[in-house]
Recover the amino acids of this structure.
């Protein structure tokens, strides 16, 4: 019997974001209605992401890709690789948009959204929704 879900989620393996991502997906009413790809660097390996998406589409007919990046990602060398938070943020937004554009070029009927996570000095993880 066929079974379907709506969302295809991509996020980094980084354990510091694990609980917050689950909470975010629950708040957005995606948890339980999504395939989840957790891989170092999130969208960094675009070929891997496309391969997983192809399987998710075939098996579960997903309708929307949700790409979650984060600040201080070790797969990109961490925050120390950047001269400022703004530069790192711009870079990570660029990575998300590049992956989004690649996904939509191959699967134009899909929807896509992006978010960038960061750890506040208080330890709280916040998600910035990206509209672009
Ligand atoms: Zn990471």
């Amino acid at each position: 019997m066929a079974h379907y879900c709506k969302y295809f989620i991509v996020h980094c393996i980084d354990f510091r974001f694990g609980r917050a991502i689950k909470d975010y997906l629950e708040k957005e009413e995606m948890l339980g209605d999504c395939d989840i790809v957790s891989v170092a660097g999130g969208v960094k390996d675009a070929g891997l992401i496309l391969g997983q998406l192809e399987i998710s589409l075939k098996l579960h007919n997903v309708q929307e890709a949700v790409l979650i990046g984060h600040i201080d990602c070790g797969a990109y060398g961490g925050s120390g690789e950047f001269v400022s938070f703004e530069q790192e943020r711009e870079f990570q937004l660029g990575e998300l948009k590049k992956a989004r554009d690649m996904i939509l070029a191959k699967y134009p009927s899909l929807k896509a959204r992006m978010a960038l996570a960061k750890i506040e000095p208080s330890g709280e993880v916040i998600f910035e929704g990206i509209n672009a």
